[in-house]
Design brief:
By secondary structure, this protein is mainly α. The chain is built from three helices and two strands; from the N terminus they run H-H-H-E-E. It has helices spanning 3-30, 44-51, 55-72, and strands at 81-84, 89-92. A hairpin with a 4-residue loop joins strand 1 and strand 2 (89-92). The longest helix has 28 residues, at 3-30. It is elongated, with a radius of gyration of 28 Å. The N and C termini lie far apart (91 Å).
Length: 102
Amino acid sequence: MSTVWLVAGAVAALAAVLFLADRALLWMEARGWIYWRKRRGLSSIGVDFMQEGSPGAQVLKRAMEQERVRKNVRPAEEPPFHVDLDAKIVRIRRTGQSGQEP
């Protein structure tokens, strides 16, 4: 056999191995075992590990927590409806026909 055919065969074999490895990794990703092509956020353990030594990240984490608390505080006058898609809840506050609220 000539060296051209040996090189072509080696390239074809390498391409086949890479293709099969990619398919196997996609199969594992579909089952939630790994992240291969689709990158998702780090788990909270990974984030905490990365932020351990960074004071700027700790400040950001505190600011995010304060914003979360601020969003949970209800304003003085609420809208007549509330939709929470995560909890699958819709609340509609009825106003009485005589102008009184129940």
